[in-house]
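4.2 Preliminary Data

To establish feasibility before requesting continued support, the project team ran the inverse folding procedure on a target of 105 residues. The structure was first converted into the token representation described in Section 3, and no sequence information of any kind was made available to the design step. The complete token record follows.
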């Protein structure tokens, strides 16, 4: 896979992300990045809002809704619990994102 390795260490801090680190409007990279679509965009996620959601297994929990190149056109933005997002997320990469675009893989 060409290109994904180039981003592997970018913006990564040695400390794990916590709930307090998650901010609306910020973009986060995956621990194991994958590319999506014809344009080969990385599956980074941008947080749209944070609040209470209902999880079928856990009941009402702190959750968030996100946008990502992995969300297919015409679909609702996914909502997941903060704990699941933190398991997926590697680092806040908002500062290195291209202006108005998603990163390419």
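Position-by-position output of the design step:
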């Amino acid at each position: 896979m060409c290109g994904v390795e180039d981003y592997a260490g970018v913006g990564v801090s040695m400390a794990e992300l916590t709930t307090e680190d998650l901010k609306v409007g910020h973009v986060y990279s995956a621990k194991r990045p994958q590319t999506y679509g014809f344009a080969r965009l990385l599956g980074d996620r941008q947080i749209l809002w944070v609040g209470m959601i209902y999880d079928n297994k856990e009941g009402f929990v702190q959750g968030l809704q996100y946008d990502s190149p992995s969300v297919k056109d015409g679909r609702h933005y996914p909502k997941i619990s903060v704990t699941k997002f933190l398991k997926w997320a590697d680092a806040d990469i908002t500062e290195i994102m291209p202006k108005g675009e998603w990163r390419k893989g």
